[in-house]
């Protein structure tokens, strides 16, 4: 005889699957609604999705955008000392270095070119991370030069920094009492067509994101996504429907981007990169070259120096042949002020990676050329 009690038939019915589904339907939201039930449910779901999106956006704004916006509000351009002149007679000349796209502080680049101190005191520009105003930069250089009794200015611009240098040069040449001796351009794209298509598309993609996503100019999350996307060939291994991921390379790339592009004090903000890229898009370099070549009754025209790889294919960012042609048209010719030097081992504006090659070519070719203009501005024979 079994010791288990018999279950009443009603107890068994309570576990009937059809009854369970019916009870589930009875507990659903809107079960008792008779009018516009589907419409009301759709509206409630939309409201729910919007509330979740609002919460996520609030966290994004609070922890990503707001702290960066507060930090950028306190930034401003700076002129930083790098080196003293090698010869005390050259205290009347300042060499000012400007870094390229994605950079903020030109000190490391200028420090990689110690040969520049053979022209004068060496300064470096640290950009305002909120954007670029070339008039403000020019006025800052002129004020420092006036205070230090510096009469002659040489500007050095690397890559996009050369576009900024040309505009700053025009302000100094046309609207100050300082003498512009020379502008040295290192692999500079003089308009957007000089930027190779793959680099151009990455810049355009970032600008599009900045145009429609609120807070994108300050967002470090967006910057991280863009920087990782630009380096995806390092950790993606094509094959099949989806690319395979090299986890070691992914970790190394992630660490590099976080260290150099997100949390570094010398990492450019999205807003600064946008301003730098738009400076190229505006294509003002050709107009600035023309202005520097026009006769000036009170000042001599400055020297224009273009440093580019001998093999143009070594520069994978800028079509240096294209920029070279523009420079010949605007600054070359019989009475031109152009010098083009073509080292064999350099790539795209990389003096930090190739200091020996850069310093050698500057010392052997650039300095003798620029000194003639420096002496002319001093009134020397």
Please provide a brief summary of the model.
By secondary structure, the protein is of the alpha/beta class. The chain contains 13 helices and nine strands.
Folded structure, characterized:
It is a single chain. It contains 13 helices and nine strands. It is an alpha/beta fold. Among the domains are: about 25-75; about 80-195 and about 280-380, 3-Layer(aba) Sandwich (Rossmann fold), CATH 3.40.50. The strands form two sheets. A seven-stranded mixed sheet has the order 1-3-2-4-5-8-9, with helices on both faces. The chain is elongated and about 105 Å long. The model has no long low-confidence stretch (mean pLDDT about 85). This is Alpha/beta fold hydrolase. It comes from Nocardia lasii. Pfam families: Abhydrolase_6.
Topology:
Blueprint: H1 9-13, H2 17-27, H3 37-72, E1 78-83, E2 93-98, H4 107-111, E3 121-126, H5 134-147, E4 152-158, H6 160-175, E5 179-186, H7 197-212, H8 220-230, E6 236-237, E7 244-245, H9 247-262, H10 270-282, H11 285-293, E8 303-307, H12 320-331, E9 338-341, H13 355-378
Parallel strand pairs: 2-3, 2-4, 4-5, 5-8, 8-9
Antiparallel strand pairs: 1-3, 6-7
Helix pairs in contact: 5-6, 6-10, 6-11, 7-10, 8-9, 11-12
GO molecular function: hydrolase activity
InterPro entries: AB_hydrolase_1, AB_hydrolase_fold
Transmembrane segments: 42-61
